[in-house]
Design brief:
By secondary structure, the chain is mainly alpha-helical. The chain has one domain. It has helices at about 5-10, 25-30, 40-85, 90-210.
């Protein structure tokens, strides 16, 4: 029965944990056309798609922030080498360069720490997202199965009514066929009897009068 199919009942089953993402599978759209989607199916479909979009965005953000961090680290290394090369120059110019150098180094270090924090945050989200996505996908499956079984049960109820109607109609048809056959036999006997009694010429005349009326 539909009422027995719940997320709580299915979530711990091993087969339930290795589902394809339904909204990425063309077979799901064939099974659940737009006209058949319940409010619950629409809700979980949106959740799955939003989590997929978020997962893709996080993966892209991670790649980008890691690239930025690598560039910042390389910039720090380059600035350190530049500072060493300028160490023997004019004192005033060197002091000015050193101040700018330290400012840039501090800024880069701050940005590197921010990038590390952002990477850590994104990696935490990236680790948690597959679990959230799997749960949303499982909920979507439950609602899909409930909808399918609801339709199956409704169709079965209609089929029972149709079976009863077809059985009754067949019985009535058999009865009417027998009545039809009896009446055809009676007509043949009556006509044959008149033909034998009156002859072909008289029957021909009677037929013409009968048909005209």
């Amino acid at each position: 029965m539909v009422a027995d199919i719940t997320y709580e009942l299915l979530k711990d089953k091993s087969a339930f944990k290795h589902l394809p993402i339904l909204t990425l599978d063309p077979r799901w759209y064939q099974l659940v056309p737009a006209v058949s989607k319940t409010d619950e199916i629409k809700y979980w479909e949106r959740q799955v798609n939003q989590l997929l979009k978020k997962q893709g965005q996080i993966n892209n953000d991670l790649k980008e922030v890691k690239k930025i961090k690598a560039r910042l680290i390389q910039d720090v290394v380059d600035n350190m080498e530049e500072g060493e090369q300028n160490a023997g120059q004019n004192a005033k110019q060197n002091a000015k360069r050193l101040a700018l150098h330290r400012k840039k180094m501090n800024q880069n270090q701050r940005l590197i720490y921010e990038a590390k924090d952002k990477i850590s945050q994104l990696e935490d989200e990236s680790e948690e997202l597959p679990k959230q996505l799997a749960q949303a996908n499982q909920h979507l499956l439950v609602e899909t199965v409930r909808m399918c079984y609801a339709k199956i049960n409704s169709n079965n109820a209609d089929l029972e009514i149709l079976d009863e109607w077809i059985h009754a109609t067949r019985q009535k048809l058999k009865k009417n066929l027998l009545i039809k056959q009896d009446k055809e036999n009676m007509n043949n006997q009556l006509y044959s009897g008149m033909h034998n009694l009156l002859g072909a010429e008289v029957m021909g005349a009677l037929d013409r009068i009968h048909d005209d009326n």
